[in-house]
Every structure is written in structure tokens, then in C-alpha cells.
Amino acid sequence: MNSKQLRRSLKIKWLTYYRDNREWIDKLGIWVTSNGHRRPSSGFILGALATLEPDLTNLLPLVVDLSSNPDRIISALGLDISPVKELEALEKAHKMLPSSAQSKVSLASAEPLTIDAPPPSPAYDDEACSGAGGREDDRPRA
User: Fold this and answer.
1) 3-state secondary structure at position 79
2) pTM of the full predicted structure?
3) Cα–Cα distance measured from residue 50 to residue 127, given in angstroms and rounded to the nearest whole number
4) Which of 44, 75, 119, 128 could form a disulfide with 40 if both were Cys (CB 3.0 to 4.6 A apart)?
């Protein structure tokens, strides 16, 4: 996974986690204002993401060696954002999309948040497949 994919994955996982747990997270005294954004503390975000993203858990020891400042780590990961505003913006964008594209941005369901996800592939019955030449046991024997 490259750094851009990791940042995108972390953002989606963080916003999904926040959305699903907002009721109790909002009540915690962990909120800070950073660069004009109101968000949970960096330590809280990193702790939540360390349980959600195995790639981050593998990278954190290296990242912490480079900078032990959690606010700088959150900023470098692209997570110095207001989760409330981000979710509102995604919901607004979702409502403005044509109905066929609305499945690409999912906010209301309990499913993980997805942004521009490809449509699911159709299910096939492998047992019904006979190949291009039919089944070998169906051929007449000489």
C-alpha cells in the first residue's frame, strides 16, 4: 500500500469509526481545535486507527521515531480535519449525486464508509460453468 492509499484508507476508516461511535465520542473531553478544525485529540485518533488499520500499526514505530508529536503525525496522515464537517460535506455530496452514483458514497448505513468504490462484481455459479467446449464427461467416446 502506498502512502496515498494509506492516507485515504485511514481517512475512510476514521470517519466510519467516528460516524459509528459519535454518540459517545462527542461526550468525551478529548476535543481540541487545531488549525481551525475541531476534532478529537491526536492520541485518541491514533489509538482508534491503530486498532483499525494493521498497516498503520506496522508503521507507527518508525513514524514515532521520526516525530513523537502526535499532532504532527495526524497532520502528516491528512487527518487534521473536523470529522463533523467532513461527514456533513460527504452527506451533502451524496445527496447531490444522481441516484445511480449514490451507492458510491455510503453514510447512512452501518456499512463501512466508501468513497468512489467500484460496484460489486456479480456472483457466478462455478458449478454451472461448462467451459468453451462443454464438459469432458459429456463428450461421446470413440
Assistant:
1) coil
2) 0.65
3) 41
4) 44
Please check the confidence at residue 14 and state whether its pLDDT lies above 80: yes
Instruction: Work out the pLDDT band at 122, boundaries 50, 70, 90.
Output: very low
> With helix as H, strand as E and coil as C, how does the chain read?
CCHHHHHHHHHHHHHHHHHHHHHHHCCCCCEEEECCEEEECHHHHHHHHHHHCHHHHHHHHHHHHHCCCHHHHHHHCCCCCCHHHHHHHHHHHHHHCCCCCHHHCCCCCCCCCCCCCCCCCCCCCHHHCCCCCCCHHHCCCC
- State the average pLDDT over residues 127-134: 48
